[in-house]
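Hey, resending since the last one bounced:
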Amino acid sequence: MASLEEIKEARLKKLEQLKSLGINPYPAKVPRDFAVAQFKKDFESLEKSDKEVSLAGRVMNIRGQGAILFAVFFDGTEKIQAIFKKDEMDEAAFSLFVDTVDIGDFLSVSGKAMKSKTGEESLFVSSWLMATKSLLPLPEKWAGLQDVDERYRKRYLDLLMNDELKDLIIKRSKFWDVTRQFFKERDFLEVETPTLEVTTGGAEARPFKTHHNDFDLDLYLRISVGELWQKRLMAGGFPKTFEIGRVYRNEGSSQEHLQEFTNLEFYWSYADFRDGMELVRDLYIKIAEEVFGKTEFEYKGHKFDLKNEWQEIDYVDEIKKQTGIDVNKTNEEEIKEKLKELEIKWEGENMERLTDTLWKYCRKNIAGPAFLINHPVLVAPLAKMSETGQTTQMFQPIIAGSEVGRGYSELNDPIDQKERFEVQGRLMESGDEEAMMPDLEFVEMLEHGMPPTCGFGFGERLFAILCDKPLRELQTFPLMRPKE
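The structure tokens again:
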């Protein structure tokens, strides 16, 4: 088998052969009347018309020998067979095809729509033009790209050869299309908010830092989809808003975590967390039906049906039921001892991080669909207090042992918000890199007044679970370390 270097050298010679004949192997445009999918849709009428048409695409396969060759073309819409017969086209053009065309090249082919002897819809070629001469081969059809690193690094080849992956990328686009349409049909206004922030807000995560040269100012890439900005829009008189955008968190990677991903957040004036729960349930069912054509799924051994009743799970009660720990009446040392007993590693030494780690152990045992409610204030710094004053009006959808969103009756009491920011500030001073940065300008906005509001955010983790795939696999171009 020839090496890549030998294959490239042979193709370079073919490239020079084309150039020596005055043929541009990389023209800006070639004849193309319509996409292959349209050609196949209109095949019967094109066949009856007996008119020549031009198609263009990448050569995916060549077979045959002697006076007849069969080439399969793919233009991103569908594949079509093109038939080259030596006695039905210019002999020099036929010979040039044999001498210079390889699998992976892009061609423009002109001819008539006709069925082959086996009845396959085809284009009988009368002439052709080189659209792009490839210098390296495509992966073998059946072997493909086996190495995971190579698959991610050469994603363009993986997408070309892997129909399942291509279908997932298309589904991902539809996932967000359905989501966007869902909110627009309910009169939510789509907005854009800053991705560069002086202080990160709306979540607890370690941010990426950057520097604005013109302002000589250190900034952060956002960790939420404009939570504190969209709340300003509520104060500014916009009753319903949403944004779909990229989010950045300088944290570890896992099957459900990446440093860059797409999220949606919506904000809804004069609604509370109960209204939000109802809307989110309807949204998730709509996504499942429209994108996947079903509501029953399986992920990590959990089977769930989004159309089933969504159980409500109490945060404190669930942890106590699974671990025996009452997080409202415990201390750091007791939680650490329990985490050691459960053989769970933890990061951070404060109550918020320890409590959250204990909950993450518990959630893995919940198939859902369910809503987690009644979070302690400590783990919900932006949520409104419940009427009892012991918990917050926060909710999280739980599916297959994972959190797939977070929402609140938003805190709009400026005094309470300032006090909670002060708690987060002390956590930051103690070394907690994921604590929420205080934003006093946001507090000032609350002092001017923000209406009662429900806010919620979710992201690609939901899509990954419904696909039963790691989140990284669903990124069009996953981040890769440069080759050494």
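The radius of gyration is 29 Å.

Sorry for the duplicate.
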